[in-house]
TrEMBL record:
Subcellular location per the Swiss-Prot or TrEMBL entry: Golgi apparatus membrane
Domain of life of the organism encoding this protein: Eukaryota
Family the UniProt entry places it in: Belongs to the sulfotransferase 2 family.
GO cellular component: Golgi membrane
Highest classification ranks of the organism: Eukaryota, Metazoa, Chordata, Craniata, Vertebrata
Protein name: Carbohydrate sulfotransferase
Signal sequence, renumbered to the chain: none
Amino acid sequence: HRRLHIKETRLSKFNQTEIKAMLGSYTKVLFVRDPFHRLIATFLQDMGISPSFSSFVQEVLDGGMHYRSVAWKPLVSLCQPCLIQYDYVVMFGFLRQELGHLLRRAGLPAGSLLPELTDSQVQWTYRWLSEQMFSELSAQQKKQLSRFYRWDLAAFPFSSSFLSD
């Protein structure tokens, strides 16, 4: 797009005509991850800020959408999947398979560019972590988290998410 090299990077800085032209000229890829896994990853990265996972979750719930970190905000509020027609949605936990497909569609050699990871190991690790962290939460926190992420859970197939229950 002709305005590609301008410093403005947020779509909200452009008018509707420019937004439509830009979005129409790009391949749009959305990477999604179970919101509970995103919470766990954020907590583990910021360990020491909150004394426990339960207190971290309470801070998130108390701060709601006004909290400064985008690491755990609902994806639908960040990526606008109802307004932007993404060409690909790549699920964390299936990265190797889906990235391979995406690279082949783009005409790139998929084998040499894929990260060295085993999706089944990643899924097993997050399943175990999820069980441990979920058990720390009160019934009220579990209910509030499910409500907080309800649109993500409705928009994306996180069928094995602890928040889906």
